[in-house]
């Protein structure tokens, strides 16, 4: 099997190499019969998907067959590993995850190459760029991180097993989602570089790029919180985001990708920000590769990072190469990116997009700066410093609040110029609602003048309310107009409205999800926790809950043994639940793992961790967290994904209204 | 009168000291919590000291005990943190200090970037507002037929989100 895998990877490299070289020759030199040459390049690109797919199947099949003669399978699987996790072996280690990267990239390439009729010239250019990226990853797989290396010496009877942290259902979903996002940003980059190289006339390419970006952004938007959800339910430290370098690496392209999804509207509607958008697309792709480099090179300390490996150098050169190529094309053809319109007012949709982009890019810079600062510090002062949550929370929260403010205000500003009347009309009631929420919070004891974190919590609640209410008021206002014209009820009218402009109202739904997400995050300010040694019958109280330790038990599973604490939960003197936090031991890799037990409600999560036994007293240690509003984070993410799906649905046919007679003769002034 | 003012002043001072002492007495756990969240566990788990929950972590339990002992002995926050730096190195702190220009740069840079960014946007806005309109001098006074359709299409394009 390993021989087959190795050969198909070589074949994949040859096909991707041919697709790149032949495609490049056809487009750059235009020799006689270049169309046929370009077509062979496209077909080679399609065939490369087939070969990479076979390689992935070989690796997964080897894991299912417990073929420990293959070093990768030995290191990341064992006989008792449940089947879904054997499948997840593909992305559990360095070499496999690079193969998975290649598989997804060639999959995206397949879709792009099959849809070439949309715009043959543009797609041919994009196909060449994708083939170039494919070649890089296939070079890695063939020469630096080979997944089909054979074990030397006596064959082991069993594998070393999968990292116990990864043996959780989300691990079967989280990496694929994240990778679909990371890898997917190659496609917008390919279109952008293609359009730049060919000086693509018109703005069709930006429409195509926007849709691809939305799809890949949705995957990343789902993948990042899935990782947070996994951390929350598996790592057992009571939180979901630790500002770990690899978490940060996933956030970087998301931030620039989100900035692009906003600024692309300026280009589509007003022909502005063309240069900026080009660089945003490039930066997003570049940061995806940087993230992959961070995860794999071991250059920064991270709980996620794969072991230190020699492939870091390959990534560094690749990062330099793509920058040089992109910058070269940009400076050669930048005259093609001249803006078509001017900015007419500071209070306009255009300027809100400018500030929105500034804040997203600033947030990206801040996260990047904090992530790399340990290395900068080592370089400049000879020793590393740690840049952890206290730093990121201090510098990111103000930027996030400004972004939340723009999320509320931006969509309701008009293009070109917004009048004071329009501002009043759109914001009066949402602003009053936000103020009311602030007053209620102060009445209930949140004193923003006492602690900065309370101030942030108050601002977050008020701004999230403002976002939510502006979105709701937009739906109601639009729904009423439709209702007046069609006679439908308000709910049906709002649905109709949404269907008529899916992009606009899908965007509003995404914003609503963002507001919910921020509400969930603000709960962190009010977190409580307690730790206690608890024998049978011992009690601990936290918030409105009292926990009683009922018993401890041991169980054996094929892949691990587990100590379980049985904790009864009382509220108001009445038992409302029983929770079972676990302490697991995985013999294959000698790892121990705490799996918390969580009682999740919309108001708060009761989160219990069985931390093992005190080595001095032998008594079990239980840590209890009371985390308010965490559920709203997951709900917010689902709403964001739903909004993105809505935005991707094609619009219903517009209703043609009769043109008022007076418009026929109305004078049209410059700039009105 | 002066004597009376002095007595009131002493009384206020005594009350303040008492209040502060009482606050201090009940604040040890809050200080431990605050300081424990300003430090990392040095076992390599990359977690905040008080959040490290590794089974049998040989560092976090010891470090927590040392933190409790230092706070109990009445050391100030600065002294406690300095003692940890001496023992475990600078990476024990969860964020850069504000000492030395390199560490200060860590904190200043994001805000400096914000200010620079705002200035840049202001410059761009100014430049764009002053850009001449690419419209020919002869402007029609009435619009109808195909031309009206064209304007309506443009308006739709520019006003849809």
Please, could you describe this protein's structure?
The complex is a heterodimer of chains A (672) and B (161). Chain A is an alpha+beta fold and 672 residues long. Chain A has four domains: 1-167, no CATH class; 217-408, no CATH class; 409-524 and 637-650, no CATH class; 526-631, no CATH class. Chain A is 61% helix and 11% strand. Chain A has 20 helices and ten strands. In chain A, the strands form two sheets. In chain A, strands 2, 3, 4, 5, 6 and 7 form a six-stranded antiparallel beta sheet that branches. The longest helix of chain A has 35 residues, at 452-486. Chain A is globular, with a radius of gyration of 28 Å. Chain B is mainly α. Chain B folds into two domains: 2-92, Orthogonal Bundle (Helicase, Ruva Protein, domain 3), CATH 1.10.8; 101-159, no CATH class. Helices cover 64% and strands 0% of the residues of chain B. Chain B has helices spanning 2-26, 28-36, 60-72, 77-88, 101-129, 145-159. Chain B starts with a helix and ends with a helix. The model of chain B is unreliable at 16-26 (pLDDT under 50). Classes of the chains: A alpha+beta (672), B mainly alpha (161).
Q: What's a concise summary of this model?
A:
The complex is a heterodimer of chains A (672) and B (161). By secondary structure, chain A is α+β, with helices and mostly antiparallel strands.
């Amino acid at each position: 099997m390993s021989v087959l895998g190795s050969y198909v990877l070589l074949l994949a490299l040859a096909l991707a190499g041919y697709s790149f070289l032949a495609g490049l020759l056809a487009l750059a030199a235009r020799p006689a019969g270049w169309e046929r040459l370009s077509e062979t390049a496209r077909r080679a690109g399609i065939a490369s998907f087939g070969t990479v797919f076979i390689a992935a199947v070989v690796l997964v099949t080897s894991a299912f067959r417990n073929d420990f003669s293959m070093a990768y399978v030995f290191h990341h699987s064992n006989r008792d590993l449940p089947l879904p996790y054997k499948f997840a072996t593909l992305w559990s280690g360095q070499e496999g995850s690079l193969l998975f990267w290649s598989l997804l990239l060639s999959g995206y390439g397949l879709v792009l190459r099959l849809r070439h009729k949309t715009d043959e010239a543009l797609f041919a250019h994009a196909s060449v760029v994708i083939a170039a990226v494919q070649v890089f990853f296939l070079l890695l797989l063939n020469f630096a991180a080979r997944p089909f290396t054979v074990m030397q010496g006596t064959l082991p009877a069993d594998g070393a097993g999968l990292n116990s942290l990864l043996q959780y259902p989300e691990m079967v979903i989280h990496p694929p989602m994240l990778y679909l996002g990371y890898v997917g940003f190659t496609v917008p980059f390919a279109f952008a570089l293609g359009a730049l190289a060919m000086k693509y006339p018109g703005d069709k390419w930006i429409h195509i790029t926007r849709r691809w970006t939305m799809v890949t952004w949705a995957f990343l938007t789902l993948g990042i919180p899935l990782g947070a959800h996994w951390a929350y339910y598996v790592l057992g430290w009571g939180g979901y985001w630790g500002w770990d370098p690899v978490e940060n690496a996933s956030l970087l392209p998301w931030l620039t990708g989100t900035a692009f999804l906003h600024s692309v509207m300026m280009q589509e509607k007003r022909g502005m920000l063309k240069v900026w958008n080009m660089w945003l697309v490039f930066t997003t792709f570049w940061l995806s590769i940087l993230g992959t480099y961070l995860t794999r090179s071991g250059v920064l300390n991270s709980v996620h990072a794969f072991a230190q490996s020699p492939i870091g150098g390959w990534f560094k050169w690749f990062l330099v190469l793509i920058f040089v190529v992109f910058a070269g094309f940009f400076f050669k053809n930048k005259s093609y990116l001249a803006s078509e319109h001017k900015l007419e007012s500071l209070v306009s949709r255009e300027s809100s997009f400018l500030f929105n982009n500034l804040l997203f890019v600033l947030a990206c810079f801040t996260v990047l700066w904090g992530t790399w600062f340990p290395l900068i510090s080592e370089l400049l002062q000879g020793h590393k410093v740690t840049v952890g949550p206290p730093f990121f929370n201090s510098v990111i929260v103000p930027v996030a609040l400004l972004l939340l403010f723009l999320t509320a205000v931006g969509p309701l500003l008009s293009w070109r110029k917004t009048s004071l009347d329009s501002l009043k009309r759109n914001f009066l009631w949402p602003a009053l609602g936000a103020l009311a929420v602030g007053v209620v919070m102060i009445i209930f004891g949140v004193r923003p003048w006492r602690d900065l974190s309370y101030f942030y919590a108050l601002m977050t609640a008020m701004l999230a309310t403002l976002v939510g209410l502006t979105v709701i008021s937009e739906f109601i206002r639009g729904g009423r107009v439709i209702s007046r014209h069609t006679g439908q009820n308000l709910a049906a009218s709002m649905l109709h409205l949404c269907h008529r402009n899916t992009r606009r109202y899908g965007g509003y739904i995404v914003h609503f999800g963002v507001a919910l997400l921020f509400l969930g995050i603000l709960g962190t300010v009010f977190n409580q926790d307690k730790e206690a040694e608890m024998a049978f019958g011992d009690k601990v109280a936290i918030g409105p809950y009292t926990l009683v330790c009922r018993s401890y038990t041991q169980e054996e599973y094929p892949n691990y043994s587990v100590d379980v604490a049985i904790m009864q939960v009382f509220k108001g003197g009445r038992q409302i639940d029983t929770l079972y936090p676990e302490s697991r031991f995985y013999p294959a890799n000698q790892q121990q793992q705490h799996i918390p037990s969580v009682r999740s409600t919309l108001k708060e999560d009761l989160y219990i961790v069985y931390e093992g036994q005190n080595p001095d007293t032998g008594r079990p240690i239980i840590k209890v967290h009371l985390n308010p509003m965490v559920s709203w984070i997951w709900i917010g993410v689902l709403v964001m994904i739903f909004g993105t799906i809505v935005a991707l649905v094609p619009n219903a046919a517009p209703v043609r209204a009769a043109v008022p007679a007076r418009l026929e003769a109305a004078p049209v002034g410059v700039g009105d | 009168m002066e004597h009376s003012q002095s007595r009131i002043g002493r009384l206020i001072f005594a009350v303040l000291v008492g209040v502060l002492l009482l606050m201090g007495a009940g604040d040890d756990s809050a200080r431990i919590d605050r300081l424990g969240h300003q430090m990392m566990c040095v076992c390599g788990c990359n977690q905040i000291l008080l959040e490290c929950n590794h089974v049998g972590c040989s560092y976090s339990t010891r470090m927590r005990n040392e933190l409790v002992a230092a706070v109990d002995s009445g050391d100030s926050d600065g002294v406690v943190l300095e003692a940890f730096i001496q023992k475990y190195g600078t990476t024990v702190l969860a964020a850069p200090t504000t000492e030395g220009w390199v560490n200060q740069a860590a904190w200043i840079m994001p805000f400096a970037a914000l200010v620079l960014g705002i200035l840049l946007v202001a410059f761009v806005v100014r430049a764009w507002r002053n850009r001449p309109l690419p419209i020919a001098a002869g402007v029609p006074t009435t619009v109808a037929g195909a031309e009206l359709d064209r304007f309506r299409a443009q308006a739709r394009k520019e006003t849809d989100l």
